[in-house]
Known about the structure:
Elements: H1 5-18, H2 22-35, H3 39-45, E1 53-58, E2 65-71, E3 75-76, E4 87-93, E5 96-105, E6 113-123, E7 128-131, E8 137-141, E9 145-151, E10 163-165
Helix pairs in contact: 1-2
Amino acid sequence: MTHTLAAFSRQVHDILLADPGPLGRERVRTLLEDVVKDQRFADEHLGDDQPQRRLLYQDPDLGFAILGHVFHEARRTQPHDHGSSWAIYGQVAGETTMDGWEIVEPATEATPGKVRLHDSSTLTPGTARVYNEREIHSPRREGAAKLIRIEGNPNQAGPRIVWEPA
């Protein structure tokens, strides 16, 4: 099935309007897995010449954002959460290892928190994963990769906390 950005964003809107919680996000994750398998959609929105991060759509009512990511080389991201928001990562091309972390020492205003690696899973083309509020994670890539990420309301998420491995 061929997807359009307009139809996809409308479906995400309708799902989250009916259920903005974890069950609604799981339904969005399933939809995203279908979208990231659509090569025409990927070719249209994730060109090799685009910036590493590009806003594809921001919902004017619910605030969620659909972002396209194109990474040309290996990259490791510091452990972080999305504040009071959430994120769903969908792999289009390449692989992304998602490390999950548990808190060892809480963060303070003056110092980052400390975390310990809890689990790792690999996103391969056609797969997606949800990270709910305050779930600490860090993506890493050994090479080029393309993703579509849906983020809750990034404008109202509050401060994101960056963590350091213990």
